Amino acid sequence: MQHKEGHVSSTLDHGIATIEFYHPASNSLPAAILTDLAKTINDIGIDDRVKVIVLKSVGDKVFCSGASFDELIAINNLEEGTKFFSGFANVINAMRRCHKLIIARVQGKAVGGGVGLIAAADYAIATESAAIKLSELAVGIGPFVVGPAVEKKVGPSAFSQLAIDATEWRSAEWAKRNRLYAEVHTTIQEMDDAVARLADKLAHSNPEAMSELKKIFWKGTEDWDKLLVERAAISGRLVLSDFTRNAINKFKKKD
Predict the structure, then answer these.
(1) How many Å apart are CA 236 and CA 75, to the nearest integer?
(2) What does DSSP assign to residue 134?
(3) Which three-class secondary structure state does DSSP give residue 126?
(4) Does the pLDDT at position 3 exceed 70?
(5) Is residue 23 part of a domain?
(6) How many CA atoms lie within 13 A of 189 on its CB side?
(7) Is 13 strand, coil or helix?
(8) Whole-prediction pTM value?
């Protein structure tokens, strides 16, 4: 799915579906990209030809810079705010409900919603340059929608560190130590080799067994369809505050 700015695309090769997203603003996630990501994941999740999914972004620097500042600053009411942040909820829930195991290929830094995408994957393989940051509190909101996925993966202590110290980058090694990344490699080529090896193994594994494993991995999240939308409403309300608008404008000026 191609947009004026950015795209979401998918390919299928020997049972391995690769979902790729791109946006010229450091692979940020405007509403259109979020909608297409959720739809693509949902569609591929019920495709019997697909055995495993690889989620990746374009380029060799930033994996994902999170929410689009341009769209955040354009939100004018609670309904619009809730709808925008529900886009993140829909992607995380699509990944959670998907019957296929999802490998995240993380070639570079991830911020906010990008960290949420990684946490919602079942296995993440990264490079040493793939530092992470939950920057939401720094712009007057908080990681409310992605929080459940991040906390489930890294635990309450590491999640609170990320959420509270919102301007601090955490290294890829920190992320691996706290279980967000399963593997960290020195180069992009080494990471890609590792992704290809694992994807090939899973493409030859029992689909029913992997589907049952996924249910076990995500046990206890059955209320997330409701919970994440409720969290989206919190962010949608906070983004309307003068504090948040001023903070976002300051960040935009830095860019």
Answers:
(1) 8
(2) -
(3) strand
(4) no
(5) yes
(6) 0
(7) strand
(8) 0.96
Whether 211 is covered by a domain: the verdict is no
Q: What is the DSSP secondary structure assignment for residue 139, as one 8-state letter? A: G
What integer pLDDT is reported at residue 5 of this predicted model? 80
Range of the domain at 31: 7-189+199-203
CA atoms within 13 A on the CB side of 240: 13
Q: How far is CA 190 from the centre of its chain?
A: 22
Domain count, the chain: 1
Nearest alpha-carbon partner for 218 in 124, 94, 110, 126: 94
Q: What is the C-alpha separation between 139 and 244, in angstroms, rounded?
A: 5
| CA nearest to 247, candidates 148, 135, 115 | 135
User: What digits encode the pLDDT tens for the residues 169-211?
Assistant: 999 999 999 999 999 999 999 999 999 999 999 999 999 999 9
Counts for the chain of helices (H) and strands (E), in that order: 11, 9
CATH of the domain at 125: 3.90.226.10
C-beta atoms surrounding 189 within 10 Å: 10
